[in-house]
Amino acid sequence: MNPKLFTFFVLISCFFASPSLFGQDLTRVFSMLMERKPDSALTLSRQIVHDYPESAKAYYAMGKATLMKSGLPAAIPIYEKLLALPSFESDVKESAMFDLSACYYGVGDYGEARAKMAESVRLSKGKKNEPHVKQRARILGFDSLYTSWTDRETAHFVFHFQEGVNNIDGFIARKEMAFDIINSFFRAKPLKKIDYFVWSDETEASKILNRPLAFTEPDLALTHTSAIHTVGHEMTHSICRFAVAPTRVHKLIWEGVCVYFDQSRRSSIQTLKKLGFNSQIAGVWKNEIRAGTDIIYPLGGELVRRLIDKYGRDKFMQLLTDQSYDSAVKIYGNDLAVVLSEIEHDLKN
Questions:
Q1: Distance in angstroms (rounded) separating the CA atoms of residues 302 and 284
Q2: Fewest Cβ atoms nearer than 10 Å: which of 91, 112, 221, 345?
Q3: How many whole angstroms separate alpha carbon 166 and alpha carbon 4?
Q4: Measured CA distances, 99 to 34, 90, 193 (Å)
Q5: pTM for this model (two decimals)
Q6: Contact status, residue 61 vs residue 45, Cβ threshold 8 Å
Q7: Tens digit of pLDDT for each residue in 5-18?
Q8: DSSP 80-130
Q9: Residue 114 near residue 92, CB atoms below 8 Å
Q10: Cα dist. 272→1, 277, 282, 285 in Å?
Protein backbone atom coordinates (compact mmCIF):
# COMPACT_ATOMS: atom_id res chain seq x y z
CA MET A 1 0.00 0.00 0.00
CA ASN A 2 1.14 3.61 -0.77
CA PRO A 3 2.02 5.31 2.45
CA LYS A 4 -0.11 8.56 1.83
CA LEU A 5 -1.63 9.57 5.11
CA PHE A 6 -3.99 12.37 4.21
CA THR A 7 -5.62 13.94 1.19
CA PHE A 8 -4.72 17.48 0.23
CA PHE A 9 -7.87 18.28 -1.66
CA VAL A 10 -10.37 19.46 0.96
CA LEU A 11 -9.10 23.04 0.88
CA ILE A 12 -7.10 23.29 -2.33
CA SER A 13 -10.07 24.36 -4.44
CA CYS A 14 -10.61 27.48 -2.34
CA PHE A 15 -6.89 28.24 -2.38
CA PHE A 16 -6.79 28.06 -6.16
CA ALA A 17 -9.87 30.24 -6.39
CA SER A 18 -8.28 33.07 -4.42
CA PRO A 19 -6.68 35.80 -6.58
CA SER A 20 -4.79 37.33 -3.60
CA LEU A 21 -1.09 36.91 -3.01
CA PHE A 22 -1.99 35.06 0.21
CA GLY A 23 -4.13 32.57 -1.72
CA GLN A 24 -1.48 32.15 -4.38
CA ASP A 25 1.18 31.39 -1.76
CA LEU A 26 -1.06 28.79 -0.13
CA THR A 27 -1.62 27.21 -3.52
CA ARG A 28 2.15 27.04 -4.01
CA VAL A 29 2.54 25.24 -0.68
CA PHE A 30 0.07 22.55 -1.63
CA SER A 31 1.58 22.24 -5.09
CA MET A 32 4.98 21.66 -3.49
CA LEU A 33 3.48 18.99 -1.25
CA MET A 34 1.88 17.21 -4.19
CA GLU A 35 5.30 17.30 -5.86
CA ARG A 36 6.77 15.86 -2.63
CA LYS A 37 8.92 18.89 -1.85
CA PRO A 38 8.32 19.23 1.89
CA ASP A 39 11.36 21.40 2.63
CA SER A 40 10.26 24.11 0.22
CA ALA A 41 6.65 23.81 1.36
CA LEU A 42 7.60 24.15 5.01
CA THR A 43 9.80 27.19 4.40
CA LEU A 44 7.06 29.00 2.50
CA SER A 45 4.29 28.01 4.93
CA ARG A 46 6.31 29.32 7.88
CA GLN A 47 6.65 32.64 6.10
CA ILE A 48 2.90 32.72 5.46
CA VAL A 49 2.20 32.04 9.16
CA HIS A 50 4.63 34.85 10.09
CA ASP A 51 2.81 37.25 7.76
CA TYR A 52 -0.71 36.06 8.70
CA PRO A 53 -0.47 34.80 12.30
CA GLU A 54 -4.26 34.69 12.77
CA SER A 55 -4.95 32.69 9.61
CA ALA A 56 -6.23 29.15 10.10
CA LYS A 57 -5.44 28.35 6.48
CA ALA A 58 -1.82 29.40 6.98
CA TYR A 59 -1.48 27.06 9.97
CA TYR A 60 -3.23 24.29 8.09
CA ALA A 61 -0.70 24.57 5.25
CA MET A 62 2.18 24.54 7.75
CA GLY A 63 0.65 21.52 9.48
CA LYS A 64 0.54 19.62 6.21
CA ALA A 65 4.11 20.56 5.35
CA THR A 66 5.34 19.60 8.81
CA LEU A 67 3.49 16.30 8.59
CA MET A 68 5.25 15.37 5.36
CA LYS A 69 8.64 16.68 6.47
CA SER A 70 8.84 15.61 10.11
CA GLY A 71 5.98 13.20 10.79
CA LEU A 72 3.00 12.92 13.08
CA PRO A 73 4.34 14.15 16.45
CA ALA A 74 5.72 17.38 14.99
CA ALA A 75 2.43 18.22 13.24
CA ILE A 76 0.22 17.91 16.32
CA PRO A 77 1.09 21.23 18.04
CA ILE A 78 0.64 23.14 14.79
CA TYR A 79 -2.85 21.77 14.26
CA GLU A 80 -3.68 22.43 17.92
CA LYS A 81 -2.51 26.04 17.49
CA LEU A 82 -4.89 26.30 14.55
CA LEU A 83 -7.80 25.12 16.68
CA ALA A 84 -6.90 27.63 19.41
CA LEU A 85 -7.15 30.62 17.05
CA PRO A 86 -9.98 33.00 17.98
CA SER A 87 -11.78 32.63 14.67
CA PHE A 88 -11.41 30.46 11.62
CA GLU A 89 -13.39 28.94 8.79
CA SER A 90 -15.44 25.86 9.65
CA ASP A 91 -14.02 23.82 6.74
CA VAL A 92 -10.49 24.44 8.02
CA LYS A 93 -11.47 23.38 11.52
CA GLU A 94 -13.11 20.24 10.18
CA SER A 95 -10.04 19.33 8.15
CA ALA A 96 -7.71 19.99 11.09
CA MET A 97 -9.86 17.81 13.36
CA PHE A 98 -9.79 15.05 10.77
CA ASP A 99 -6.00 15.22 10.42
CA LEU A 100 -5.43 15.50 14.17
CA SER A 101 -7.41 12.34 14.79
CA ALA A 102 -4.97 10.40 12.61
CA CYS A 103 -1.96 12.17 14.14
CA TYR A 104 -2.96 11.26 17.68
CA TYR A 105 -3.83 7.72 16.59
CA GLY A 106 -0.43 7.34 15.00
CA VAL A 107 1.38 8.22 18.24
CA GLY A 108 -0.86 5.95 20.31
CA ASP A 109 -3.01 8.61 22.02
CA TYR A 110 -6.33 6.88 21.36
CA GLY A 111 -8.33 9.13 23.68
CA GLU A 112 -7.44 12.30 21.77
CA ALA A 113 -7.77 10.49 18.46
CA ARG A 114 -11.29 9.34 19.31
CA ALA A 115 -12.31 12.79 20.57
CA LYS A 116 -11.03 14.56 17.47
CA MET A 117 -12.72 12.04 15.19
CA ALA A 118 -16.02 12.43 17.06
CA GLU A 119 -15.82 16.18 16.55
CA SER A 120 -14.92 15.69 12.89
CA VAL A 121 -17.98 13.46 12.46
CA ARG A 122 -20.14 16.09 14.16
CA LEU A 123 -18.84 18.89 11.95
CA SER A 124 -19.37 16.84 8.78
CA LYS A 125 -23.02 16.07 9.54
CA GLY A 126 -25.22 16.81 6.54
CA LYS A 127 -22.25 17.60 4.28
CA LYS A 128 -21.00 15.76 1.21
CA ASN A 129 -17.97 14.43 3.05
CA GLU A 130 -19.99 12.91 5.91
CA PRO A 131 -19.85 9.33 4.51
CA HIS A 132 -16.08 9.63 4.05
CA VAL A 133 -15.53 10.88 7.60
CA LYS A 134 -17.69 8.12 9.07
CA GLN A 135 -15.87 5.52 7.01
CA ARG A 136 -12.60 6.89 8.34
CA ALA A 137 -13.88 6.49 11.88
CA ARG A 138 -14.70 2.84 11.15
CA ILE A 139 -11.21 2.21 9.77
CA LEU A 140 -9.68 3.65 12.94
CA GLY A 141 -11.93 1.44 15.05
CA PHE A 142 -14.07 4.29 16.39
CA ASP A 143 -17.46 2.75 15.71
CA SER A 144 -20.03 0.87 17.77
CA LEU A 145 -19.65 -2.19 15.50
CA TYR A 146 -16.44 -3.04 17.39
CA THR A 147 -18.07 -3.25 20.83
CA SER A 148 -18.55 -7.02 20.48
CA TRP A 149 -14.96 -7.62 19.34
CA THR A 150 -12.22 -9.13 21.51
CA ASP A 151 -9.17 -6.95 22.20
CA ARG A 152 -5.77 -8.41 23.10
CA GLU A 153 -2.60 -6.37 23.66
CA THR A 154 0.78 -8.04 23.26
CA ALA A 155 4.41 -6.97 23.05
CA HIS A 156 4.10 -5.46 19.55
CA PHE A 157 0.38 -5.43 18.70
CA VAL A 158 -3.04 -4.36 19.83
CA PHE A 159 -5.27 -7.05 18.32
CA HIS A 160 -8.98 -6.59 17.66
CA PHE A 161 -10.78 -9.84 16.80
CA GLN A 162 -14.22 -10.04 15.24
CA GLU A 163 -16.50 -12.75 16.61
CA GLY A 164 -15.85 -16.00 14.77
CA VAL A 165 -12.06 -15.82 14.56
CA ASN A 166 -10.72 -19.19 15.70
CA ASN A 167 -7.57 -20.08 17.67
CA ILE A 168 -6.78 -16.54 18.74
CA ASP A 169 -3.84 -17.63 20.90
CA GLY A 170 -2.20 -19.43 18.01
CA PHE A 171 -2.80 -16.47 15.69
CA ILE A 172 -1.17 -14.09 18.16
CA ALA A 173 1.82 -16.37 18.71
CA ARG A 174 2.50 -16.60 14.97
CA LYS A 175 2.28 -12.82 14.57
CA GLU A 176 4.65 -12.11 17.45
CA MET A 177 7.16 -14.63 16.14
CA ALA A 178 6.96 -13.13 12.65
CA PHE A 179 7.44 -9.61 14.03
CA ASP A 180 10.64 -10.64 15.80
CA ILE A 181 12.00 -12.31 12.65
CA ILE A 182 11.14 -9.42 10.35
CA ASN A 183 12.27 -6.64 12.66
CA SER A 184 15.58 -8.36 13.34
CA PHE A 185 16.38 -7.21 9.80
CA PHE A 186 14.80 -3.73 9.84
CA ARG A 187 15.49 -2.70 13.46
CA ALA A 188 12.50 -0.38 13.37
CA LYS A 189 11.18 1.55 16.37
CA PRO A 190 7.47 2.18 15.71
CA LEU A 191 5.80 5.10 17.46
CA LYS A 192 3.14 2.72 18.76
CA LYS A 193 2.10 -0.90 18.70
CA ILE A 194 0.47 -2.11 15.50
CA ASP A 195 -3.32 -2.06 15.66
CA TYR A 196 -4.39 -5.31 14.01
CA PHE A 197 -8.09 -5.66 13.17
CA VAL A 198 -8.80 -9.30 12.33
CA TRP A 199 -12.10 -9.95 10.55
CA SER A 200 -13.81 -13.33 10.40
CA ASP A 201 -16.10 -12.17 7.57
CA GLU A 202 -14.18 -10.67 4.62
CA THR A 203 -17.35 -9.83 2.70
CA GLU A 204 -18.70 -7.83 5.61
CA ALA A 205 -15.34 -6.12 6.07
CA SER A 206 -15.19 -5.02 2.43
CA LYS A 207 -18.71 -3.65 2.62
CA ILE A 208 -18.19 -1.77 5.88
CA LEU A 209 -14.70 -0.43 5.11
CA ASN A 210 -15.42 0.10 1.39
CA ARG A 211 -12.21 -1.67 0.38
CA PRO A 212 -11.07 -5.29 0.21
CA LEU A 213 -8.88 -6.96 2.80
CA ALA A 214 -6.07 -6.92 3.61
CA PHE A 215 -4.66 -3.40 3.84
CA THR A 216 -2.32 -1.41 6.05
CA GLU A 217 -1.82 2.28 6.75
CA PRO A 218 1.87 2.24 7.65
CA ASP A 219 2.06 5.78 9.07
CA LEU A 220 -0.58 4.81 11.63
CA ALA A 221 0.67 1.25 12.20
CA LEU A 222 -2.88 0.11 11.40
CA THR A 223 -3.93 -3.08 9.63
CA HIS A 224 -7.26 -4.63 8.67
CA THR A 225 -6.97 -8.28 7.68
CA SER A 226 -8.33 -11.77 8.18
CA ALA A 227 -6.85 -15.09 9.25
CA ILE A 228 -6.43 -16.30 5.66
CA HIS A 229 -3.74 -13.77 4.73
CA THR A 230 -0.01 -14.39 5.11
CA VAL A 231 1.57 -14.00 8.52
CA GLY A 232 4.07 -11.28 7.68
CA HIS A 233 3.00 -9.22 4.67
CA GLU A 234 0.91 -6.50 6.27
CA MET A 235 3.02 -6.00 9.37
CA THR A 236 6.07 -5.54 7.13
CA HIS A 237 4.46 -2.38 5.73
CA SER A 238 4.34 -0.82 9.20
CA ILE A 239 7.78 -2.07 10.19
CA CYS A 240 9.33 -0.69 6.98
CA ARG A 241 7.70 2.68 7.51
CA PHE A 242 9.36 3.09 10.89
CA ALA A 243 12.69 1.72 9.75
CA VAL A 244 13.00 4.40 7.06
CA ALA A 245 11.06 7.44 5.88
CA PRO A 246 10.43 6.74 2.18
CA THR A 247 10.79 9.75 -0.08
CA ARG A 248 9.75 7.84 -3.21
CA VAL A 249 7.63 4.71 -3.24
CA HIS A 250 7.28 2.19 -6.05
CA LYS A 251 4.97 -0.79 -5.74
CA LEU A 252 7.62 -3.13 -7.11
CA ILE A 253 9.76 -2.50 -4.03
CA TRP A 254 7.10 -1.47 -1.49
CA GLU A 255 5.03 -4.60 -2.05
CA GLY A 256 8.01 -6.74 -3.02
CA VAL A 257 9.65 -6.34 0.36
CA CYS A 258 6.41 -7.44 2.03
CA VAL A 259 6.21 -10.51 -0.21
CA TYR A 260 9.80 -11.38 0.66
CA PHE A 261 9.11 -11.14 4.40
CA ASP A 262 5.59 -12.63 4.37
CA GLN A 263 6.91 -15.92 5.87
CA SER A 264 5.01 -18.01 3.29
CA ARG A 265 8.13 -19.41 1.54
CA ARG A 266 6.28 -19.39 -1.77
CA SER A 267 8.35 -19.42 -4.95
CA SER A 268 7.91 -16.10 -6.74
CA ILE A 269 9.70 -17.44 -9.82
CA GLN A 270 7.21 -20.31 -10.16
CA THR A 271 4.30 -17.92 -9.70
CA LEU A 272 5.62 -15.63 -12.44
CA LYS A 273 6.21 -18.58 -14.78
CA LYS A 274 2.61 -19.73 -14.33
CA LEU A 275 1.46 -16.22 -15.19
CA GLY A 276 3.62 -16.20 -18.32
CA PHE A 277 5.54 -13.05 -17.40
CA ASN A 278 8.45 -12.43 -19.79
CA SER A 279 8.78 -8.64 -20.00
CA GLN A 280 11.81 -6.55 -19.11
CA ILE A 281 11.84 -5.86 -15.38
CA ALA A 282 13.42 -2.44 -15.85
CA GLY A 283 10.49 -1.46 -18.05
CA VAL A 284 8.05 -2.39 -15.29
CA TRP A 285 10.13 -0.52 -12.73
CA LYS A 286 10.28 2.62 -14.89
CA ASN A 287 6.52 2.39 -15.53
CA GLU A 288 7.12 1.90 -19.24
CA ILE A 289 5.46 -1.52 -19.13
CA ARG A 290 2.13 -1.90 -17.40
CA ALA A 291 1.78 -4.75 -14.95
CA GLY A 292 -0.98 -5.67 -12.55
CA THR A 293 -0.57 -6.53 -8.89
CA ASP A 294 -0.60 -10.22 -9.81
CA ILE A 295 2.77 -9.57 -11.47
CA ILE A 296 4.09 -6.73 -9.31
CA TYR A 297 3.89 -8.66 -6.04
CA PRO A 298 5.86 -11.82 -6.95
CA LEU A 299 8.22 -9.91 -9.26
CA GLY A 300 9.01 -7.45 -6.51
CA GLY A 301 9.40 -10.29 -4.01
CA GLU A 302 11.95 -12.06 -6.21
CA LEU A 303 13.83 -8.83 -6.93
CA VAL A 304 14.01 -7.89 -3.25
CA ARG A 305 15.16 -11.41 -2.31
CA ARG A 306 18.08 -11.31 -4.71
CA LEU A 307 19.13 -7.77 -3.84
CA ILE A 308 19.19 -8.59 -0.13
CA ASP A 309 20.83 -11.99 -0.57
CA LYS A 310 23.55 -10.70 -2.88
CA TYR A 311 24.25 -7.19 -1.59
CA GLY A 312 22.98 -7.07 1.97
CA ARG A 313 20.95 -4.90 4.27
CA ASP A 314 22.70 -1.52 4.04
CA LYS A 315 22.25 -1.04 0.31
CA PHE A 316 18.70 -2.31 0.44
CA MET A 317 17.78 0.17 3.18
CA GLN A 318 19.03 2.94 0.90
CA LEU A 319 16.76 1.62 -1.84
CA LEU A 320 13.82 1.46 0.54
CA THR A 321 14.19 5.20 1.12
CA ASP A 322 14.10 6.05 -2.60
CA GLN A 323 12.52 3.14 -4.47
CA SER A 324 12.86 4.50 -8.00
CA TYR A 325 14.77 2.71 -10.74
CA ASP A 326 17.23 5.61 -11.01
CA SER A 327 17.95 5.35 -7.30
CA ALA A 328 18.61 1.61 -7.65
CA VAL A 329 21.11 2.29 -10.45
CA LYS A 330 23.00 4.74 -8.22
CA ILE A 331 23.04 2.31 -5.30
CA TYR A 332 23.88 -0.94 -7.10
CA GLY A 333 25.63 0.29 -10.24
CA ASN A 334 26.24 -2.38 -12.89
CA ASP A 335 25.25 -5.08 -10.41
CA LEU A 336 21.60 -4.09 -10.85
CA ALA A 337 21.59 -4.97 -14.53
CA VAL A 338 23.16 -8.33 -13.68
CA VAL A 339 20.43 -9.14 -11.14
CA LEU A 340 17.63 -8.15 -13.51
CA SER A 341 19.20 -10.22 -16.30
CA GLU A 342 19.49 -13.25 -14.01
CA ILE A 343 15.83 -13.07 -13.04
CA GLU A 344 14.75 -12.69 -16.66
CA HIS A 345 16.94 -15.65 -17.61
CA ASP A 346 15.44 -17.83 -14.89
CA LEU A 347 11.92 -16.93 -15.99
CA LYS A 348 12.65 -18.21 -19.50
CA ASN A 349 14.23 -21.50 -18.40
A1: 14
A2: 345
A3: 33
A4: 17, 14, 20
A5: 0.90
A6: yes
A7: 444 444 444 444 45
A8: HHHHHSS---HHHHHHHHHHHHHHHHHTT-HHHHHHHHHHHHHHHTTSTTH
A9: no
A10: 21, 6, 16, 16
